[in-house]
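Q: Please design a sequence for this.
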């Protein structure tokens, strides 16, 4: 009990010191207690360590030194007391979540950050105005109260909506934990036992079998045809053999290491634990991914800038007129009320709703094109991206092996696109098909009605590719296999690099040995070759031609398998017992037949998509865990590397030399870079930047998760907007750090989907291009929406300024401003999100976030000083027309406000000498407000048509935006309902007017349209002229 109390005290102290770390005390299966961390605060040093490449020498030292290092035994494992001490001192074998920002702080940021802060200020000011009216003037200002409640509601809605978007994508660590096995088979004290995997410690001897998940990073001690799926580490889905021999200094490439959370797909083996929990390869990836803090999205930065601009304008205008009103003799509280009214009028209350709706509608449209957006603000970021770091397998390629070439009779035959090139009446072809049919262990598991390419198979990718091409070429593969029963087999392994099977020839009563494997290995075991229906001795000339074909196919990114056979002599009779463990049959002097090459082919739509990206000024960089030669071949096929581009691998192939033999002078001729993970480990930040700057066409191959992150960070330091695609766990750090991470929906792991901002539902690179188009279009259209929303600010502010400066009666109320901003203007503002692009937006360069802002001086000049002023004049023309029609001309209105609003004045006379009671004056005020409101709506209709395009004529763009057309009808209908519907119009402080009173506003609306058409004509005609420089926003 004392020990448990001590552990709890340690936990308490740890929690206090780390400000967010959480641990619990647990008991192990042997009865000892240990502290299990659930959440940790990571220091900058720890995160920096996570970013370093995985380095150790446990796989390279001798077995004796290795066993001594971990004080263990390869037969008996650890003793229980050793394991208990290690469990207590080193902690459990588990993954702890990184302590991140508390959710309540995230909620506060969404509620009070960015545009919402501006609305909160507006809401608070309106509540203050309500309080002042009641306290000092004994008036209950229902419009101030309604405005405050509305702004509060808008804030709460947009804040909680943003918070929901953010927090639904934050379960990355949970996805990592789902990969980890719950139990492990461990040998301790020489006894095999099953225990919780989190109790596995350094030096433990563990056993793994097909179907298991490796419980920690281990060094393989024994292997029985052991194969593991390393895709969560390397991103490549092909199973790799594991054995006790060290084959590479790089631990990720050496075959004697297996890693935590990787799956055992074949065979069995034992290994000794060398890393646990967070120190494992996957633990470091998990810690790094969960620790990465993503930068603010571009649109959020734009909104912050927008808020600053609008706030400064509102404060300057408000304070100016507050000062003027004080000098003019108004009381402090009346002046403060004016300040509040002007400040609120400056706030475009409907814009947050418009922004959210526009992004949501775009996200819905993108979903139809197989792009599922997890975070709405990521849409615009994708449109602004300047570089795409794309994974190869499954994104650029189809993620399936397909036979591409048959090699026989000294020639390569294309079976991917040209079946006619195959000579089926040839003995070499028949022999190759026979061996390929018999050697492949794959088989179909679904019905024959399904097309061959879509049929599901058992077996690895290469064998499935051979099975499908044989089914296409010859048909009835299963029937042909039955004609040659298998009697013995040596499975493929990484040491021999070949697979052998022996089959009974029923008619000849002999046995046929068939072999497939790595070309260089099979060639070494062959003495003759079948060529042109003759069996020839393999000489230097024949060997050179075969090797040239192997090299040629390899440079195309194809995997090559060679095939050979041997008719066993008569002494191997039908009763002979073959032994595959200790072969008692010949494995030399075989007859070489031919080769089959396979490729993971590019998706058909990818080359065009890459070409579009190039036209749009976007670089596409391949970042893959695959071999550099394969990566370069695929990159060339899809257009990431130009046909005439030259890399060091091209020079090496051309000169038939190794990379080390290429001279410095030859390297300077390269126009494309192929950089391996080994190269990256040696590069400094400056050297990497030089490569990224010097070469426009780049491939990074054999990269680790940390290196992918390093590449992303290097590009971001160069002020590039980076999009990253990926589907594996190894991609998650780069996906999280990128400006926009894009995961694969079909092949993507849960971890990659959680780390990403967007998911491609069809795993197709070309869908990204659709997303880029939508992202660019939404920014262009958001500019139009902002312009439309801001133009009404001037006619909304003007009445308060003139009311105070000239002392004329009300022309507009705060309630009316709300009705405009979130009523009549809302649908038209949102409808601009449906506007089609004015030109081919994929033929211009990405926007520069530092220069091309959502709101700029040109936009403010056009919307405020030109369109806004025109609208204000048009609306006041209707206002003064209504006043004049009731006997109040301009000269009499000036300075009449105090009498007009005084309920005790019941005999105010007009220009004709008629007396007006307070109730009559109120009715006339409501008519004037209605007239001003309707006039503003008329000019807003013209303004919507103006904002529809930024460069093209309205006649060029057309009126095909049916949502906008409906929005115009809705705006007119809603405005008329509000003014002419009884009870409703009284509530909104309107009164019906005659339509003839609106005639003065028509010339102004026509003027806006004509002026803007001329402005855009000058922009198109003189791209570098005054109009373009000063008014194109």
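A: Design:
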């Amino acid at each position: 009990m004392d020990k448990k109390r001590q552990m709890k005290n340690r936990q308490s102290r740890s929690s206090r010191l780390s400000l967010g770390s959480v641990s619990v005390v647990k008991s192990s299966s042997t009865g000892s207690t240990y502290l299990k961390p659930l959440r940790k605060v990571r220091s900058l040093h720890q995160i920096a360590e996570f970013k370093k490449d995985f380095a150790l020498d446990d796989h390279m030292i001798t077995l004796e030194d290795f066993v001594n290092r971990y004080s263990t035994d390869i037969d008996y494992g650890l003793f229980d007391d050793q394991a208990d001490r290690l469990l207590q001192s080193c902690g459990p074998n588990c993954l702890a979540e990184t302590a991140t920002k508390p959710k309540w702080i995230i909620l506060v940021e969404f509620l009070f950050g960015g545009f919402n802060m501006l609305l909160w200020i507006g809401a608070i000011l309106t509540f203050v105005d309500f309080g002042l009216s009641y306290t000092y003037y004994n008036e209950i200002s229902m419009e101030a109260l309604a405005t405050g409640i509305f702004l509060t509601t808008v804030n709460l809605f947009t804040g909680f909506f943003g918070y929901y978007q953010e927090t639904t994508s934050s379960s990355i660590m949970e996805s990592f934990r789902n990969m980890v096995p719950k139990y492990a088979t461990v040998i301790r004290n020489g006894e095999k036992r099953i225990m919780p995997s989190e109790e596995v410690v350094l030096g433990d001897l563990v056993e793994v079998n097909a179907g298991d998940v490796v419980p920690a990073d281990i060094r393989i001690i024994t292997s029985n045809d052991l194969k593991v799926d390393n895709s969560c580490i390397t991103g490549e889905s092909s199973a790799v053999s594991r054995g006790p021999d060290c084959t590479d200094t790089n631990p990720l490439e050496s075959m004697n290491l297996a890693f935590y959370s990787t799956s055992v797909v074949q065979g069995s083996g034992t290994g000794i634990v060398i890393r646990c929990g967070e120190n494992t390869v996957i633990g470091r990836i998990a810690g790094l991914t969960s620790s990465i803090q993503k930068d603010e999205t571009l649109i959020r930065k734009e909104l912050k800038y927008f808020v600053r601009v609008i706030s400064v304008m509102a404060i300057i205008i408000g304070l100016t007129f507050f000062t003027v009103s004080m000098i003019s003799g108004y009381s402090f509280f009346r002046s403060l009320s004016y300040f509040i009214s002007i400040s609120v009028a400056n706030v475009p209350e409907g814009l947050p709703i418009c922004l959210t709706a526009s992004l949501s509608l775009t996200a819905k449209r993108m979903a139809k094109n197989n792009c599922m957006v997890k975070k709405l603000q990521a849409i615009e970021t994708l449109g602004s991206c300047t570089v795409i770091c794309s994974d190869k397998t499954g994104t650029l390629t189809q993620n399936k092996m397909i036979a591409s070439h048959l090699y026989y009779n000294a020639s390569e035959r294309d079976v991917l696109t040209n079946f006619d090139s195959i000579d089926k009446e040839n003995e070499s072809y028949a022999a190759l098909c026979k061996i390929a049919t018999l050697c492949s262990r794959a088989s179909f598991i679904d019905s024959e009605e399904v097309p061959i390419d879509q049929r599901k198979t058992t077996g690895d990718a290469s064998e499935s590719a051979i099975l499908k091409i044989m089914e296409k070429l010859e048909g009835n593969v299963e029937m042909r296999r039955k004609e040659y029963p298998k009697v013995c087999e040596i499975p493929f392994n990484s040491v021999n690099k070949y697979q052998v099977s022996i089959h009974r020839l029923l008619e000849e009563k002999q046995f046929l040995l068939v072999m497939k494997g790595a070309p260089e290995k099979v060639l070494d075991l062959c003495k003759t070759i079948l060529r042109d229906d003759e069996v020839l001795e393999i000489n230097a000339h024949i060997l050179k031609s075969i090797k040239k074909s192997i090299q040629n196919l390899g440079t195309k990114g194809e995997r090559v398998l060679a095939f050979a056979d041997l008719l066993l002599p008569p002494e191997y009779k039908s009763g002979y017992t073959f032994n595959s463990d200790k072969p008692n049959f010949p494995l030399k002097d075989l007859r070489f037949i031919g080769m089959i090459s396979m490729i993971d082919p590019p998706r058909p739509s990818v080359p065009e998509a890459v070409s579009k990206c190039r036209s749009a000024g976007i670089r596409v960089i391949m970042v893959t865990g695959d071999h550099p030669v394969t990566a370069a071949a695929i990159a060339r096929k899809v257009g990431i590397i130009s046909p005439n581009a030259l890399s060091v691998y091209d020079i090496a192939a051309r000169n038939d030399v190794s990379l080390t033999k290429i001279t410095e002078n030859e390297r300077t001729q390269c126009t494309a870079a192929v950089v391996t993970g080994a190269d990256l480990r040696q590069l400094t930040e400056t050297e990497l930047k030089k490569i990224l700057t010097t070469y426009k066409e780049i491939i990074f191959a054999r990269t680790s998760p940390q290196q992918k992150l390093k590449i992303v960070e290097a590009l971001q330091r160069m002020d590039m907007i980076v999009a990253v695609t990926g589907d594996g766990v190894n991609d998650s750090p780069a996906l999280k750090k990128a400006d926009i991470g894009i995961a694969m929906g079909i092949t993507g792991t849960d971890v990659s989907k959680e780390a990403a901002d967007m998911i491609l539902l069809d795993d197709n690179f070309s869908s990204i291009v659709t997303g880029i188009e939508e992202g660019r279009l939404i920014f262009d259209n958001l500019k139009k929406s902002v312009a439309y929303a801001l133009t009404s600010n001037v006619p909304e502010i003007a009445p308060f300024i003139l009311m105070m400066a000239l002392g004329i009666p009300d022309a507009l109320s705060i309630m009316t401003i709300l009705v405009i901003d979130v009523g009549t203007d809302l649908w038209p503002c949102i409808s601009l999100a449906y506007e089609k692009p004015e030109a081919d937006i994929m033929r211009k360069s990405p926007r520069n976030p530092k220069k091309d802002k959502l709101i700029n001086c040109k936009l403010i000049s056009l919307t405020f000083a030109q369109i806004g002023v025109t609208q204000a004049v048009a609306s006041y023309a209707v206002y003064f027309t209504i006043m004049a029609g009731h006997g109040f001309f301009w000269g009499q209105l000036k300075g009449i406000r105090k009498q007009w609003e005084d309920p005790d004045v019941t005999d105010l006379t007009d220009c004709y000498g008629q007396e007006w009671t307070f109730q009559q004056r109120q009715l006339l005020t409501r008519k004037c407000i209605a007239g001003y409101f309707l006039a503003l709506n008329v000019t807003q209709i013209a303004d919507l048509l103006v904002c529809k395009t930024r460069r093209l004529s309205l006649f060029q763009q057309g009126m095909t935006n049916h949502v906008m057309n409906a929005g115009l009808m809705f705006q007119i209908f809603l405005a008329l309902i509000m003014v002419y519907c009884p009870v409703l119009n009284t509530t909104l402080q309107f009164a019906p007017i005659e339509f003839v009173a609106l005639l003065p506003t028509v010339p102004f609306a026509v003027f806006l349209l004509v002026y803007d058409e001329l402005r855009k004509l000058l922009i198109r005609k003189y791209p570098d002229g005054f109009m373009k420089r000063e008014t194109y926003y």
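Q: Thanks. Anything notable?
A: Residues 1-19 have pLDDT under 50 and may be disordered. DSSP finds 41 helices and 31 strands in the chain.
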